[in-house]
Write a structure and sequence with these properties.
Number of domains: 1
Shape: globular
CATH superfamily: Oxidoreductase, molybdopterin-binding domain
Distance between the termini: 14 Å
Order of helices and strands: EEEEHEEHEEEEHH
CATH architecture: Alpha-Beta Complex
Strand content: 25-35%
Oligomer: single chain
Structural class: alpha+beta
Strand order of the largest sheet: 2-1-10-5-6
């Protein structure tokens, strides 16, 4: 279930089964971690985010509303606010399969956002909520861990205040704890 909240006429829940009524999409893309590693040639399958948005969400917007960001939340509590331009890019999808197999807990089951042009922290695992925003969200992170508001790989936008190369070693040390907490948090919330 994906909750749709924010600037809509009536908030609603989107059953994951409803994704099967939309055209399927498959992309092969690299996945870039903010810590500096890259997994190459991953084959993701799911639904184009733009198709989902235009078909099921945009018709439910409050009249005259202009969406600037969509805050995506996972079952593990992780959130990423994505600009409307970035999230509607042609290669962004809600993935349910990776390399021909259903997603497992480590990779974001049952569904995750995949935005290949952005660092992995934008690609929210265990997607459970989409909040439609009409202004940029407030910054809630402290200066040491502040993520970049866009996180574009080719611009090396790793951190909100510091150059990307300066924070890479710090992020690398957090890979194992984040992976463990993400997987455990999703299992706890799924029951």
């Amino acid at each position: 279930m994906i909750e749709v909240r924010g600037a809509v006429t009536d908030e609603f829940d989107l059953p994951l089964a409803s994704l099967s009524s939309l055209p399927r999409m498959e992309i092969t893309a690299d996945f870039h971690c903010v810590a500096g590693w890259t997994a190459t040639g991953l084959r993701w399958e799911g639904v184009s985010f733009e198709t989902l948005y235009r078909t099921l969400i945009e018709p439910a917007l409050r009249p005259g509303t202009s969406i600037t960001h969509i805050k995506c939340r996972g079952l593990d509590g992780w959130e990423a606010a994505v600009t409307i331009d970035d999230i509607l890019a042609e290669d962004v999808l809600i993935a349910e399969h990776l390399d021909g197999h259903p997603l497992d807990s480590d990779h974001g089951a049952p569904a995750r956002l995949v935005s290949p042009r952005q660092y992995g922290y934008i690609s929210v695992k265990h997607l459970s909520r989409l909040e439609l925003l009409t202004t940029a969200p407030a910054i809630t992170e402290g200066p040491l861990i502040r993520s970049h508001p866009r996180g574009r790989v080719w611009e090396e936008e790793r951190h909100g205040l510091l150059p990307g190369r300066a924070v890479r070693p710090f992020y690398r040390a957090l890979i194992r704890p984040i992976r463990f907490l993400s997987s455990r948090g999703a299992r706890d919330r799924q029951g």
